[in-house]
Amino acid sequence: MSRIAVVPGSFDPITLGHLDVIDRASRIFDEVHVLVVHNPDKSALLPIAQRVTLIDRAIREAGIPDHVLVTSWSMGLLVDYCVDVGASVLVKGIRSQIDVAYETPMAIVNRNLAEVETVFLLPDPSHAHVSSSLVRQVAGLGGDISPYVPAAVADYLQNQRGD
User: Fold this and answer.
1) pLDDT tens across 5-25, in order?
2) 38 is in an annotated binding site
3) Is 18 a catalytic residue?
4) This model's pTM is above 0.90
5) Residue 51 in contact with residue 11, Cβ under 8 Å?
6) Per the residue annotation, which of 72, 95, 111, 146 is the catalytic one?
7) Was 49 annotated as part of a binding site?
8) Strands across the sheet with 4-9, in order?
């Protein structure tokens, strides 16, 4: 039996912390779906299709195995996607107690709705302070985001700004 996991997020943009969690998930599970989802509570920097392209490029450039797939989902509950692809696990990166408090109720509901378990992975400590919203803020003010994001993302955003 194949163990399939889903790593969901808005990934707007993907950070090195996200990439670290995806890489480690790829070593645990037989198939990993990186799922870009729309978060209605956030104002997006990048269109979803562009996020999918940048994530796929970053994953390939990092040498993460081919059993990691990148796609998007906007047609219902996250657990609906999991059921559709046969995934029994969600993988979430946790940076702090704030993340734990936010993610725990969702993990319980996802288990109750579709028997999908949630596994929390801690990012490498060198990335634990970085969030996509912090990267968006730094990028929006013209700062250097290259220490926080994969090269594909830094290059894309610099080209968008005309640097």
Assistant:
1) 999 999 999 999 999 999 999
2) no
3) yes
4) yes
5) yes
6) 95
7) no
8) 68-73, 31-37, 4-9, 89-93, 117-121
Please give the Cα distance from 66 to 45 (Å, whole number): 27
- C-alpha dihedral over 100, 102, 106, 108, to 10 degrees? 40
Residue 133 assigned to a binding site: yes
Q: Give the type of residue at 106.
A: M
Closest CA to 150 of 121, 120, 129, 130: 130
Triad 153, 131, 14: Cα angle to 5° = 30
Among 24, 51, 57, 132, the active-site one is: 132
Which residues, in sequence order, are bridge partners of residue 32? 5, 68
Dihedral sign from CA coordinates of 128, 129, 130, 132 = positive
Q: What is the CA radius of gyration of the chain?
A: 15
- The residue type of 46 is L
